[in-house]
Amino acid sequence: MKGMPRMSKAELYSLLKRPIVTEKTTNLAELGQYVFEVDKSANKIQLAQAFELAFPGRKVQAVRMIKVPAHSKRYGKRIGQVPEKRKAVFSITGEPIELFTGA
């Protein structure tokens, strides 16, 4: 792509923070869609490259991004702040990821 600096493999790996495993995301995994918490500054192209690097043999068809806003939360008497996050839903072709299968 023009104008975009190339990222190293280590930088691409750091864009995917952790998989989000809930009942809803497990149902999405059956459809070939996987949800990860990702870096807030990453764009869809970088995230697709990072996913294909982390899970070889899978091709990303689409990336949907969701911004989870910050909110306050009580910790006993005190009120704290939960930081904002960003999630990405990856639609893939290829074999399913072993982390998400019920094997």
| Rg calculated over all Cα atoms | 16 Å
Count of structural domains: 1
Placed side by side, the strands forming the largest sheet appear as 1-2-6-3
What is the H-and-E element order? HEHEHEEEE
Shape: globular
What does this structure look like?
- With 103 residues, the protein is an alpha+beta fold.
- The protein has one domain (9-94): RRM (RNA recognition motif) domain (Alpha-Beta Plaits, 2-Layer Sandwich), CATH 3.30.70.330.
- The protein has helices at 9-13, 23-29, 44-54, and strands spanning 16-19, 33-38, 59-68, 71-75, 78-82, 85-93.
- The strands form two sheets. Strands 1-2-6-3 form a four-stranded antiparallel sheet. Strands 4-5 form a two-stranded antiparallel ribbon.
- Strand 4 and strand 5 form a beta hairpin.
- The mean pLDDT is 89.
Features:
alpha+beta; 103 residues; 6 strands; 3 helices; globular
Write the layout of secondary structure elements.
Elements: H1 9-13, E1 16-19, H2 23-29, E2 33-38, H3 44-54, E3 59-68, E4 71-75, E5 78-82, E6 85-93
Antiparallel strand pairs: 1-2, 2-6, 3-6, 4-5
Put the structure in a nutshell.
The chain has helices at residues 9-13, 23-29, 44-54; strands at residues 16-19, 33-38, 59-68, 71-75, 78-82, 85-93.
